[in-house]
Design a protein that fits this description.
44% helix, 4 helices, 4-stranded parallel sheet, alpha/beta, 84 residues, single chain
Length: 84
């Protein structure tokens, strides 16, 4: 059985820590990014199963990142579920 990977895109370290703690406790593998650019790198490399996306990020907002993900040429990336 494969463990689902969840990418937490959150620039507030305390919020990211709380989310990761609770998800890890339930058996998920969590990945973290503090900016949209960092999230792009992780998404390309790790192909998470779900993205928890903050709307307010330091480099560009969550809506922009969401549009970029949805416009990606590879369906394995453009089809990743996103919760904002």
């Amino acid at each position: 059985m494969t463990t689902a990977k969840i990418l937490i895109v959150e620039d507030d370290a305390e919020i990211a820590e709380i989310l990761a703690f609770n998800l890890d406790k339930r058996g998920y593998v969590t990945l973290r990014a503090e900016s949209g650019l960092a999230a792009c790198r992780i998404i390309e490399k790790e192909r998470p199963d779900l993205i928890l996306l903050d709307r307010m990020l330091p480099d560009f907002d969550g809506r922009e990142l969401c549009k970029m993900i949805r416009a990606h040429a590879e369906e394995s990336i453009s089809g990743i579920p996103i919760i904002m």
